[in-house]
Amino acid sequence: MPFEELVKRGEYVWEVPEDAAPRMRVPGRIFLSEVLMKYLERGAIQQVANVATLPGIQKWSLAMPDVHTGYGFPIGGVAAFDVNEGVISPGGVGFDINCGTRLLVTTLFKEEIEPTINELTTALFDTIPSGLGSKGQLRLSEKELDGAFFGGAKWAVNQGYGNSADLKHCESNGCLDGADPTKVSPLAKKRGKPQLGSLGSGNHFLEIQYVDRIFDRTAADLFGLKEQQVAIMLHSGSRGAGHQICTDYLKMFQAASRKYSIELPDRQLACVPADSQEARDYFSAMAAAANYAWTNRQVMSYWVRDVLEQKFNTTVTLVYDVAHNIAKLEKHVIDGSRKEVYVHRKGATRAFDNDASYGIEQPVLIPGSMGTASYVLHGTKKAMSTSFGSTCHGAGRILSRKAARRSLTWKGVTEGLQRKHIALKTDDLSSVPEEAPEAYKPIDEVIDVVAKLGISEAVARLAPMGVIKG
Amino acid sequence: MLCDSGMQKYEFLEHTADVTFKAYGRDLNELFENAAEALEDTMVLLNEIALNEILTIEVASDSYENLLYDWLSELLITFEVERFAVKKCFVRIVGFSLTAYCLGERLGPNRHKLNEEVKAVTYHNLAVTKNDVYHTEVTLDV
Predict the structure, then answer these.
(1) Range of the domain at A279
(2) Which residues are CB-neighbours of B109 under 8 A, at least 6 positions away?
(3) What is the tens place of the pLDDT at every residue in A191-210?
(4) At what angle do helices A239-259 and B64-80 cross, to 10 degrees?
């Protein structure tokens, strides 16, 4: 046991006791197997403890099995705050507000696209702007940008970038209520305006995948997933708009935290009382950024459809779209009574036990690292009582970008993909090692933990055929 | 990266998800200049940047830490919105106000090697301290 302060509370539950760090109000809980324990960093435990010091936190400061050190909150962090006594913290959402994952399925099967996978990957790469400082093809007026901030995917569908079924299959129907573009700074608008409809860089990607295994046939049928079926997965967020909104409010909250006498173990955790004007303003701006992100993924889906429908006789359907950096007002049963809380998910996915999109449990999308499997799961009742209806969001990094570049070469990683017959397109080959499987925890183990813990259940596994690395 | 005097200007530390650097300076002006270079170095291959344009940046704040955050955030915005990469800058700090003359060039398509897309500067462990020299530690979200 490398970390003596951790107390085992169940097969996959490790507690950070309330006395592990000064001023903790609740214990921390980290969900890990013995295998994943070896990747746990002291910095991540410290960050779980730091979050536990924030006013109004309920039950536990949580970390999912893909946890790793972030700034402020750990990545994989989940915390719920009382609507009256609690706080809202922009650092608990992060800079890439509503960074999230979207899955589209086609009516094509693996063998139909296999012979032309390189051409298809290239065609998608040429159509969807990606990479460092990527800009979208849309030329928006101020009014149109406000429309996206206000209406999210609904705005995009109204503009012709999709259909109403898409909205039904998005978390929150692709639009958070309460968004107010007047709470978004001119600078955030300036950063966001040219980038709408672009993937971005780093770990953002578009993958052509196929369903290689089905675990839950009933749910898979409802979600429209068949074995060998070709799917497209997108991972992107709110681009410069979200980054600037978080920057603006974090700066504002440095002074505001002092005004409200909130003691902070890390300035990145700057926060304000949930019922303050400052919190309402941030929430309205954050909702605008979340809506921008849903618009972004919706617009990119339109181009994906365009490319696929031109090349093949197929229709492309949206399976689901989930956020993994967001704060939401939700109702949860806490100590026997149902109450409203602001749930912050920083690198964690909502995993509710019911959802209107398919009339069963909510679909959950978990991408693996480049060249490895991704998963479709669904939420559970257990998640509602264990993790405020949340689960992991990916494999979780283990190597820093610098260490990945040092220990792996782009040539080696690219050859590894070629051996698995996975096509790769990127405008920056030198960054390829940063997203290699060796830089991440094993996705299958992470999924195994959330499934055995019962906070999600596996529906299907998807394997990559073509990767566009942002 | 070393100064003319042989003192280290900045160094990158390990951070699982993001980029953390330590910057040094014999005085605050130099500390802020070196931190700026570390940020630009994260975003672009600095060797390829010419010194063909000068830009003046002014920021004011209420502490050295906040001034550093505002200064680096301003450089990030200049890079992303104005597409202007700073190779060398001259910083003058009076009180908690900063004036900087920034030399560099506008980024052209496919003309420069970009490194990481920096999303934002964070407040994580942000501190400006002085032992023999001034130093700071900054984490960037990439």
Answers:
(1) 7-469
(2) none
(3) 999 999 999 999 999 999 99
(4) 170
pLDDT tens digits for A321-366? Answer: 999 999 999 999 999 999 999 999 999 999 999 999 999 999 999 9
Contacts of B6 (CB under 8 A, 6+ apart): none
We report the CATH number of the domain holding residue A89 as: 3.90.1860.10
Which CATH number is B86's domain given?
A: 3.55.10.10
- Residue A393 appears among annotated catalytic residues: yes
What is the C-alpha separation between A444 and A16, in angstroms, rounded? Answer: 25
**What pLDDT is attached to residue A123?**
98
Cross-chain Cβ contact B119/A95 below 8 Å? yes
Q: Report CB contact under 8 Å: B16, A69.
A: yes
Enter the ipTM: 0.90
Instruction: Report which DSSP code applies to A362.
Output: P
pLDDT above 90: residue B22: yes
Alpha carbon A24 to chain centroid distance? 27
Q: Which of A68, A235, A344, A393 is catalytic?
A: A393
Contact between B70 and A402 using a beta-carbon 8 Å cutoff? no
Q: Kindly report the nearest CA distance between residue A251 and chain B, in angstroms.
A: 8
- Does A2 map to a domain? no
Please compute the mean of the pLDDT values over residues A236-247 and round it to a whole number: 97
CB contact at 8 A, B125 and B139? yes
